[in-house]
Recover the amino acids of this structure.
């Protein structure tokens, strides 16, 4: 019944490695997001995908590459991991397109805590 | 671009009221939101308010919006230890039909028993 799921929950790896985080939503939403939350709990949007199309691509190093095989999945691949990549990464989904303004809720996954040593 | 600011930390005693404040810069915001993040979890929507309203009450929660000053607040009455969390305000607008949301910096609420 989990609405937005992420795997893995914890990821410990060494500098220079390549890793992926997977995200799936079963809510039928049209848009998915990746956020990075640093140690001070600031939440920063990284990417947004709508129907498999990239909508938002904030200033993120190109070592980060999102991949959306279908509407329900948005994976995050990170190459050549650096110490500064250590953070909690959240996936979220929402129904972002609307014919008229409406409140909409972003549903967040439980987060993936990435530690780079 | 849009900017949403909050104070970082608030400490209150159990049973008191908590007031968490937020300021934003985008005058075209259509909805404003409060999200709660408990330790080790993702954010969850608590409540929202439409930009043409100035107040919304939902059980122990009262949201006040001063659109002129671009100031949003969340009041929690009879604060309980279970309210200890990080609270994020957020605003959204919809350029071209796509609803874009900007989150604030988050306020950590500590409830002292």
């Amino acid at each position: 019944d989990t609405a937005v799921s992420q795997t893995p929950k914890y990821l410990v790896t060494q500098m220079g490695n390549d890793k992926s985080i997977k995200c799936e939503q079963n809510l039928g939403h049209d848009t998915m997001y990746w956020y990075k939350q640093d140690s001070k709990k600031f939440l920063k949007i990284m990417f947004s995908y709508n129907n498999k199309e990239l909508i938002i691509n904030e200033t993120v190093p190109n070592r980060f590459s999102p991949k959306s095989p279908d509407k329900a999945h948005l994976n995050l691949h990170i190459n050549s991991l650096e110490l500064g990549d250590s953070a909690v990464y959240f996936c979220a989904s929402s129904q972002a397109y609307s014919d008229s303004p409406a409140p909409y809720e972003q549903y967040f996954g439980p987060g993936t805590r990435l530690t780079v040593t | 671009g849009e900017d949403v600011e909050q104070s970082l930390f608030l400490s209150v005693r159990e049973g008191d009221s908590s007031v968490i404040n937020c300021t934003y810069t985008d005058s075209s915001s259509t909805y404003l939101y409060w999200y709660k993040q408990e330790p080790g979890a993702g954010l969850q929507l608590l409540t929202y308010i439409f930009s043409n309203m100035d107040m919304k009450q939902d059980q122990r929660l009262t949201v006040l919006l001063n659109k002129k000053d671009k100031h949003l607040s969340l009041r929690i009455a009879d604060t309980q230890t279970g309210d200890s969390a990080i609270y994020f305000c957020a605003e959204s607008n919809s350029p071209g039909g796509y609803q874009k949301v900007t989150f604030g910096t988050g306020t950590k609420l500590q409830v002292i028993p």
Observations:
- Chain A has no helices and eleven strands.
